[in-house]
Design brief:
The protein is an alpha+beta fold. The protein has a single domain, classed as 3-Layer(aba) Sandwich (Protein Transport Mog1p, Chain A). The chain has 3 helices and 8 strands; from the N terminus they run αββββαββββα. The chain has an 8-stranded antiparallel sheet with strand order 1-2-3-4-8-7-6-5, sandwiched between helices. The radius of gyration is 16 Å and the shape is globular. The two termini are about 25 Å apart. Keywords: Signal. This is Chalcone isomerase domain-containing protein. It comes from Pseudoxanthomonas japonensis.
Length: about 190
Amino acid sequence: MWMRAVWVSVLLSMALSVSAQDVVDRLKVPGPIGFSGETFRLAWTSNPSDRLYKQEYLPAGQTLERYESMLMLDLTFDGATPRQKAAAFAATLDARKSSDPVVNYEVLLGDNGEVILDFLLSAKPAGGDLIVEWNAYRYSTLGDGVQMVGISRRAYGDAAEDFLRHRLKALREHDIRALAALELRATLPAK
């Protein structure tokens, strides 16, 4: 439960502060990473335990505090399967529905055991603009762990309505296909 709560708060946090020296490629993913016509560079990493590795990538000119596009890579070693990971995150989205009227999700199962969780959520920080965020997370087995590769797209304030009404449908379909085809594999950290 702790990991899911932390992940949702990281996604919607507007107060991240990261310096260049904090960014260490622990998963040995060669970059920059091309995705859906954009180039993403490593912007943030975390390794709170030997069971969890997180890396976030942004296009040039975007910040963790206010991005429009983010690519994410997580590697977890907690005994869960890709389906269990997606189901656990879907449960956090179900719980969020009572406070977030935008929450919606779909679980897509692949023939290869991979799972894509496609979801939408929103937040209105105190004194801040409305944030609408669409994500797709692809969960797959990697060694004795689960790798999650995700794409996150955000719109803020007045642009949020346009994002939902006009841009999201085409963006979603294109990005899910691109995510399913993306060949991105972390290198298992030495234990």
